[in-house]
Amino acid sequence: MFLRDFMVNGFASRYSTYLDLRHSGQEDWKVAFPFLPEPYDACLEKGTLTFVAGDSPGLVTPSGTWPVPRDVAGGELKNFPRRGGDGTIEANKTEKHRLVRMLNMHPMYWRYGNAQINYRRFFMVNDLIAVRQENENAFRDTHALLFRLASEGIIDGVRIDHIDGLYDPTGYLQSIRSRLGGLKVYVEKVLSRNEALHPDWPVEGTTGYDFMYALDSFLVSNDGFSQVLRTYLGLTGQASFGKVVEECKLANIEGGLRPDVDFVSSTLKKAMEGYPEAYDAPPLRSTRSSWSSSL
């Protein structure tokens, strides 16, 4: 609902501040839409990216039909003839491209999307745009059902997934606790062996990954583990699993998480400009040379 309203109203949408968009402040800013199955030009040419007019005007894509701004829906699309009974407009590639440029989204080939993502997302899942729970209105609207179920006594507790993805986990949990009272609250938090849960989080505990790790260790026999380890070393030649973990982290920093790392880096660079000691420091880039010593 939030994104669809933004597609129609842009930054005039009441929900534009709900979505964690990395916008530039420019009037022509568009949210990336990296869901085309092939390059944009080919989609226009083949008609897999087109427009429909009529009672439900919108941009037709392989992933569904999306609403368009009112000046496009109520003005531009009415100027085109339609074919068949589905309201699809008769337009050539150049005409459709002109209409696309009037939208609040930027459709693109999914393989190109990672380098152009301009919103916070769930890991590398491009179609899960983050919602800013630190925004009081966003928090209220997205939790209305939960709080109603709690007030009616229908639920006994809640599980909160991916708590580390929030801007302010502690503040969020305090808001949850103040509204849920004595209901049990558990968070999905993967703790390392020597890591403790944040003491200022008002929760009953984690969803149990730490317990699962201990239980798995108890259930694995020493003889079986030794055999698995020998097989692993024979197949990979790696003497250290820690080295594998480091290589995988670096691969993600350079790959799928690169736009997120670069955004954090550029934000930090702007903040540093207020200090003489760091005014001319270059931004930290998502490369192995930048990160390998810190992992």
String of helices and strands = HEHEEEHEEHEHEEHHEHEEHHHHH
What's the total count of β strands? Answer: 12
| Class from secondary-structure proportions | alpha/beta
Give the name of the CATH superfamily of the largest domain: Maltooligosyl trehalose synthase, domain 2
| Biggest beta sheet summary | 3 strands, antiparallel
Number of structural units classed as domains:
3
Name the CATH architecture of the largest domain: 2-Layer Sandwich
User: In CATH's first tier, which class of the largest domain applies?
Assistant: Alpha Beta
The share of residues in helices is 25-40%
Q: β content, as a range? A: 5-15%
CATH fold group of the largest domain: Maltooligosyl trehalose synthase, domain 2
Count of separate DSSP helical elements: 13
Taking the alpha carbons of the first and last residues, their distance comes to 39 Å
Going across the biggest sheet, name each strand in turn.
Answer: 2-3-4
**Spans with pLDDT under 50 lasting ≥5 residues?**
none
Q: What's the gyration radius in Å? A: 24 Å
Coarse morphology: globular
Characteristic key phrases:
3-stranded antiparallel beta sheet; alpha/beta; 3-stranded parallel beta sheet; 295 residues; Maltooligosyl trehalose synthase, domain 2; 3 domains; globular; 14% strand
Question: Explain this structure to me?
Answer:
The protein is an alpha/beta fold and 295 residues long. It folds into three domains: 121 residues, Maltooligosyl trehalose synthase, domain 2 (2-Layer Sandwich), CATH 3.30.1590.10; 81 residues, no CATH class; 75 residues, no CATH class. Helix content is 40%, strand content 14%. The protein is built from 13 helices and twelve strands. The chain has a three-stranded antiparallel beta sheet, with no helix packed on it. The protein has a three-stranded parallel beta sheet with strand order 10-11-12, with no helix packed on it. The longest helix is centred in the last third of the chain and has 15 residues. It is globular and about 75 Å long. The two termini are 39 Å apart.
